[in-house]
Backbone:
């Protein structure tokens, strides 16, 4: 809780996959859904980032997982 008082908040998780273009597994989705539902926080959801073997951004997966179990994949848009 010391980190929370310092303004540091858990916002999600990241890991790597041995895929060129990573896709979240069913285990990944279930894990994030249970983690965000069981957590006490003021965020609207947690982020999951998966890094594949292609250079970024091609080898990147980002999704937002909400406490109600809904999730969506986020896309990177260059501006
Ligand atoms: Zn995974």
Residues:
């Amino acid at each position: 809780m010391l980190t929370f008082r310092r303004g540091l908040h858990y916002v999600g998780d990241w890991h790597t996959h041995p895929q060129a273009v990573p896709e979240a597994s069913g285990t990944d989705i279930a894990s994030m859904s249970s983690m965000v539902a069981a957590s006490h926080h003021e965020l609207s959801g947690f982020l999951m980032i998966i890094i594949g073997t292609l250079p970024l951004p091609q080898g990147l997966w980002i999704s937002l997982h909400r406490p109600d179990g809904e999730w969506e994949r986020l896309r990177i848009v260059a501006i």
Observations:
- The beta strands are 12-16, 46-51, 60-65, 71-74.
- The radius of gyration is 14 Å.
- The pocket of zinc ion is lined by residues 15, 17, 25, 28, 50 (CB under 6 Å).
- Residues 39 and 47 are 13 Å apart (CA to CA).
